[in-house]
Every structure is written in structure tokens, then in C-alpha cells.
Write a structure and sequence with these properties.
alpha/beta; Rossmann fold; Arc Repressor Mutant, subunit A; 7-stranded parallel sheet; 6-stranded parallel sheet; about 45% helix; binds adenosine-5'-diphosphate; binds zinc ion
Length: about 625
């Protein structure tokens, strides 16, 4: 049997899946060859299998999974154990006896996956005998962006992981993250001491999530729009992100007052309350959670149908991660973000109080530019993550109501040529000065006034150039090197435009009055009715395969009863996607049941009777 066949067998028997997704097998294979890797995949992309399978395939060895979040760790282990996979955790929440038992099992080669926090790993590993350390087949560093100061969630304890490679040079390291720009990515490799790590980048696109931004609504108007939106999604699960704890509480109160059952969730609440809310949300007993950024990290709920940002988030990384919690099952989902000038002021204060003012201010500016843009939102996001995406998505508010456009290729060529002639050593404002022919001290000093492109863009105003350069950045013609004084660097796509192989369109520049703070006395205009499509089709027009809704509801009840009986979350019995597969394919025998999506060997044994009985009953067989 080949290595791949063995892996596929494990995939079927332990997880109930038939094939690897995207680059999963390449990543696993590279790891089995002993190679280091950096894995960039969006939330829901399937990162966990990449390190779980190598652990499972190792005869007496085990994979160490380093993760910063205790809640997530425990959930993942529960879910793995449901599939009969020997996974354990070492952490401070466990008793001394439990932890000792775990070490004993490691000693005897009885564990395949060990989840541990970075600080615990580094104290623990010194105490292990070589019998244990010799068994380590992989270090998987989850949420690896936490190691970088350039990332949006820096955790100092992660930086110590840099010693692993020196101490265990022959054990492969796999760094995984759902958010990394080029700088963060380079930083991860450097800090982990794995300069030759192979990079595996999956597309970050989540085409099933529709992206919408509403500008300028505040106060009552905003609240009305939120209520309207939620009412369009009755019976569906959603998350509303708020900036502060108090905002989350108020939002939940106000929603409850208008008859929408909602609860707040934030770091200031007791562990018990938080766990209860998470559980209710996962179990579909609570539909709406009003949360600060603390919510959602630790849960794997695949049927969240919408995510609302009642204020603009701090940065694009966080925004993308948060909206990524919607639609993990691949079915249509909505992201709705509200943005007002007041948000910018508050967020600037947060940034100033943070340890890394400059980085956070820069990231905030990019977030604001995203919110204000007239460019397809998905293009901006994917280009921000250095992924080439050169067409409009047709599933965002800009694409739904496109602004007036014109062929901007000539302007782009002027700008790109100016950037090229500076040796890619100039920032955005300097490029505008060069195009406008502005003899500023810096321009003269560097000799830019002697460039061929100096002054070619005189016919446009500074405001126009700034706006168009921003659009070009968002379209992915060049990127900003934050680690090199914000100089502009031309991308491959940019070169194609520069040499006339591609054309681009720009949105007509209109002066915005939005950034000017409105007088507090001005009356808010009546709330426009927002229109949101709730059509059950994917953006590419594919219809969702027909499933029997009534049967699905019945199976959901069966799942709920089974979960309650064994004190686990319903999704750990089966995901919605598995229930949908059952409600579509209607298996009535054990054999038919065993090939359903997500039905591994253990779950087939445990659950085929109750589910097929319910289906037979439903079909009156
Ligand atoms: P991530 O950690 O990248 O957010 P997960 O590893 O949790 O994503 O995977 C997301 C979902 O996709 C999970 O429910 C997982 O079981 C499922 N999944 C992952 N790989 C496959 C596969 N090859 N076939 C089918 N489902 C998969
Ligand atoms: Zn779009």
C-alpha cells in the first residue's frame, strides 16, 4: 500500500471523508518527508487535517500541536475523541494527576496528538525522557501569526518557540495561520528558524460570503437596520461584533427588548457564563450573540449564517478572520459592516494606547480605506493578503451597485512607470508629487525631478492622484512594504498593466465630504431600507442541491437527543453538512450510512441505528 493510500484510508475510517482538499495531501506528504512548512489557509479551509494525519500515520510517534487557546484545544480534543482518535492535552486547567497520566501514555506510545500551549511545552519538554522526545514526529504551530509583531495578535510567549528547531533539528515544523501578509509570513519563518520552510498558500477567497458595508449610519438608524437585517434571517445563527464590552451588552439588551433573543459575550464575563453562551450558540438554543473580539475563536460552528460588525474593526486581518466564522459549511452567508467616522476616532485612540502605535495606525488606515472604497471589496481583501484576484466578485455591495468607471490603464501606466523609475524606493505621496511635478525638497534631493515621468500627471489634482493610487493599490498593481518605509513595490499583475498586457478600470473620483465631522445638531436622515438577497444560490449561480428540509429538522432532533445524552455538543455528533447529506441521500441501511460525508468508522457504529431508523420512519418504511 502506498503512503497516499494509507492516508486516504485513515481519512475515511477516522473522519468519514473521501478525498483531501486543495493542498492538504501535498502538505502532509512534505511533512512525512521531514520538511518544514508554512501553511496559509483561510478559516474553515481544513488546516487541522494537515497536522493530524501525520500524527496518525506515525507508528509509535505523536505530533505536538501548539495552540494558544485552551477552549479551542479542549473542543478539538473532544471532537477527535468522538472519532476514536487518541488525542490529549497538557495544560494548566488539568489536574496534576491527569497531566501525569498523559505523560505516561506518551511514554508508551499511546497518544497520536498532543495539544499544548507554548509556555507549557517549553517547561514540559525539559522534563521528558528521550523515550518521549524521540517519539515526536512533528511540531505543528497553530495560529502561527501570534509569533510576529507584524501580525495582529502578537503573543510574546510564542517567540520562545524559536528554540525548537535548534534542539530538535530533525523534527519537522509546520506553522499554520489563517491570516498572514508577506511580512508576517517572512517573520514566522525567521523566528521559527525554518528559512527553507516550504510555503503552502491556499486561496483565501470565501466566495459564499457576501460582503457588505454600510457607511455613515449611527445610533437609532443603525440599530433599525440591524434589526431589519436580523429579521430577514430569522431562525438562523449570527454574530454581531461590537467594539467594547459595554456596546455588546447594550446591543443584546436592545435586541432583546424588540423581541430578538440575544446575549452578550465578552472577556469581562465569568468563565461559566461564557461557556454557557458558547454552548447555547453551538447547540442552536441561542441564535444571536453580541460579542467583542473574544468570541468565536474557540468554536467550530459551521452554520453561522451572518456576521455583523456594528462598528468598523481595527484591521483587515481581524475583520477577515471574524467574517470567516460565517458560512464554514460553504453555504451562502452574509457579512455586514457598519462604518462611521466616529469609529475611526475611537479606533485611533485604541491604536495610540497599544504597544505598537505605528503598525496599528497603518493597519487601521488600510481598514478605513477598505470601508470607503469604490473597488470590489473582495479584490481589496485578497490583494491585501497578496493573492492575485483580478476580476470583480459579483457578491459584494460595490459589485451590486458599481460606481461610474473608466479605462484607467494610462493613469496606471504613468504611476507604475514613476514607481519603477524611483527604483521602487518611494512612498505613495512622493509618487503623487512626481506625477504632479511638485518640486518638493525630497523630490529634488533624490533627483526625481529629472525622471521622465516627472509632471506627466499634471492634468489631475493631488486629490485625484491620491484616490487613484489607492484604487491601484487595492486592485493589486503594487503593494506597500511596511518593513521598508512604506515604499511601493510593483506586483506581477502591475507589470502586466505597465507593459500593456492587461487593462484596468478605475472608479471616477468624487470628493468625499464623509471625513468631515458632522455637526452634532444635524438631524439624521431617515434610514434607507437596506436590501439583502437571501437567495439560496452560490455566487457563481450554482443551485444548492435539494435536500429534504423536513427530514433535516427531524435528524436535527435526533442529533440533539444523542448529544444531550452523552453530554457533548451536537456538532460533535455530526456537522450540519453531514445531516444535510443524510437528508439528501436518505440512507436506510448501515452500508448506505457508512459512506455519508463525515461518517467515520466509530461514528457509523455508534449512530447508524438511530439515524437510519429516523429516516425509515420518515419514509414510512
Ligand atoms: P481550519 O482549521 O482551517 O479553520 P478545519 O480544519 O476546522 O479548518 O476544517 C474545516 C471543516 O472542513 C471541518 O469541519 C473539517 O472537518 C472539514 N474538512 C477538512 N478537510 C476536509 C476534507 N478533506 N474533506 C471534507 N471535509 C473536510
Ligand atoms: Zn465584488
Amino acid at each position: 500500500m502506498t503512503r497516499e493510500q494509507k492516508a486516504l484510508m485513515l481519512l475515511r475510517s477516522c473522519y468519514g471523508y473521501d478525498s483531501f482538499r486543495g493542498q492538504q495531501w501535498d502538505i502532509i506528504n512534505h511533512t512525512l518527508d521531514g520538511g518544514d512548512s508554512i501553511v496559509l489557509m483561510p478559516t474553515g479551509g481544513g488546516k487541522s487535517l494537515c497536522y493530524q494525519i501525520p500524527g496518525l500515520m506515525s507508528d509509535e510517534g505523536f505530533a505536538i500541536v501548539i495552540s494558544p487557546l485552551l477552549a479551542l484545544m479542549n473542543d478539538q480534543i473532544d471532537a477527535l475523541q468522538q472519532n476514536g482518535i487518541p488525542a490529549l492535552a497538557l495544560n494548566s486547567e488539568k489536574s496534576e494527576t491527569e497531566n501525569r497520566q498523559t505523560v505516561d501514555l506518551l511514554m508508551h506510545g499511546k497518544v497520536k496528538l498532543l495539544y499544548i500551549s507554548p509556555e507549557k511545552l517549553l517547561t514540559e519538554i525539559d522534563r521528558w525522557s528521550s523515550t518521549i522526545t524521540d517519539r515526536i514526529c512533528l511540531f505543528a504551530v497553530d495560529e502561527a501569526h501570534c509569533i510576529s509583531q507584524w501580525g495582529h495578535d502578537f503573543r510574546p510567549e510564542y517567540t520562545q518557540l524559536g528554540t525548537l528547531k535548534q534542539r530538535f533539528p530533525s523534527v519537522p515544523i509546520m506553522a499554520l495561520t489563517a491570516t498572514a501578509d508577506r511580512i508576517t509570513r517572512d517573520d514566522i519563518a525567521r523566528q521559527l528558524g525554518t528559512p527553507h520552510a516550504q510555503l503552502f498558500i491556499s486561496s483565501f477567497d470565501r466566495p459564499n460570503i457576501s460582503l457588505n458595508v454600510v457607511q455613515g449610519s449611527t445610533g437609532k438608524q443603525k440599530f433599525r437596520q440591524i434589526v431589519q437585517f436580523i429579521n430577514l434571517h430569522q431562525g438562523e445563527s449570527g454574530i454581531i461584533y461590537c467594539l467594547r464590552r459595554i456596546d455588546a451588552e447594550k446591543m443584546a439588551q436592545k435586541l432583546t427588548a424588540v423581541g430578538i433573543q440575544a446575549r452578550p459575550f465578552h472577556a469581562g464575563m465569568s468563565v461559566k457564563d461564557k461557556q454557557q453562551i458558547q454552548r447555547d450558540f453551538i447547540n442552536d438554543d441561542l441564535k444571536v450573540v453580541c460579542a467583542t473580539i473574544a468570541f468565536g475563536m474557540g468554536i467550530d460552528k459551521s452554520n453561522v449564517r451572518y456576521v455583523i460588525h456594528s462598528n468598523m474593526p481595527r484591521n483587515i486581518e481581524g475583520y477577515y478572520q471574524e467574517i470567516g466564522r460565517a458560512g464554514r459549511d460553504g453555504l451562502p452567508a452574509q457579512a455586514l459592516m457598519f462604518y462611521s467616522y466616529g469609529d475611526v476616532i475611537t479606533l485611533q485612540q485604541f491604536a495610540r494606547q497599544s504597544g505598537q502605535v505605528q503598525v496599528n495606525m497603518d493597519k487601521l488606515r488600510r481598514m478605513q480605506e477598505f470601508a470607503e472604497s469604490s473597488v470590489c471589496r473582495r479584490r481589496i481583501l485578497l490583494n491585501y493578503f497578496n493573492e492575485r484576484y483580478d476580476h470583480d466578485c459579483k457578491n459584494c455591495d460595490v459589485c451590486d451597485n458599481p460606481p461610474a468607471r473608466f479605462d484607467g490603464t494610462t493613469y496606471a501606466q504613468m504611476a507604475l512607470s514613476a514607481i519603477k523609475r524611483t527604483g521602487e524606493q518611494a512612498g505613495m505621496y512622493t509618487v503623487t508629487d512626481i506625477l504632479r511635478g511638485w518640486r518638493k525638497a525630497e523630490v529634488i534631493e533624490k533627483g526625481y525631478d529629472r525622471l521622465k515621468t516627472f509632471g506627466v500627471g499634471r492634468n489631475l489634482t493631488t486629490g485625484e492622484w491620491n484616490a487613484y493610487l489607492l484604487q491601484m493599490l487595492q486592485l493589486g498593481l503594487f503593494e506597500v512594504a511596511y518593513d521598508e518605509s512604506n515604499h511601493l513595490k510593483i506586483t506581477e499583475y502591475g507589470n502586466e498593466v505597465l507593459y500593456g498586457r492587461q487593462h484596468i478600470e478605475l472608479s471616477k473620483y468624487e470628493r468625499r465630504s464623509f471625513n468631515v465631522k458632522k455637526a452634532p445638531t444635524s438631524q439624521p436622515s431617515p434610514a434607507p431600507d437596506l436590501t439583502f438577497s437571501t437567495e439560496p444560490t452560490l455566487p457563481d449561480g450554482r443551485q444548492i442541491k435539494q435536500m429534504d428540509k423536513e427530514l433535516f429538522e427531524r435528524l436535527r432532533d435526533v442529533r440533539k437527543a444523542l448529544a444531550t445524552a452523552s453530554h457533548i455538543a451536537p456538532y460533535m455528533v455530526f456537522s450540519d453538512k453531514s445531516l444535510q447529506a443524510m437528508a439528501t441521500q436518505k440512507p436506510t441501511t448501515q452500508a448506505e450510512f457508512s459512506i455519508i460525508y463525515g461518517v467515520g468508522e466509530l461514528k457509523c457504529q455508534k449512530y447508524w441505528r438511530p439515524f437510519t431508523a429516523a429516516i425509515r420512519d420518515y419514509l414510512s418504511l
